[in-house]
Amino acid sequence: MDSPGQDSSMASTGLASGGTLPPGLTEEEAEEMQLELTKVDDEIQTLRQVLTAKERHATELKRRLGISPLSEIKQNITKGWHEVQCSSAYMRTSQTVGDLNRRVTSSNLYLTASATLEDISRSETYKKTQDTLSQAGQMTSAAFSTMGSAIRSRLGEMRNSPSFKSFEDKVENMKYKVTGRSNGESSPTSNNAPF
Prior knowledge:
Blueprint: H1 4-14, H2 27-65, H3 69-86, H4 88-105, H5 108-122, H6 124-159, H7 162-179
Helix pairs in contact: 1-2
């Protein structure tokens, strides 16, 4: 299992720097400990290999059972959340927040503020403001729609105008000058679109 080269390299790495033994340790004890360390390292390596093989086997079984990594993550999150909810810290915090909520909602300030907000929402001024804002939103939406139609129509008219055609021809000529093609050559991507 151990090669002679490995044994000597392990022995040299196990000794203190400079080749001296730590105080209180004989050379025989150091060699014995080095052999034990080598065995433990070998066992660790073997366990890693076994663990890797087991993980591969588990992955294959999960794949064959249709268990996806995403479903595993969901299951782990659900389990973790359940454990958090069952923890004493969470339960104490939840109880404290519940007590605080009850105190706040039963306080005079909260009840007064709540009643005031209810009164405001029932007031005629509030209802008029709400209606006005609703109408303003509808009118703004209609205005943008009309403006969009007008712009679309105007751009359509401009595209068919002689000045736009002239501009389009100038851009196309510039394109051919830059790319090195003459007006008679057709570009593989050209479909006579304006840009």
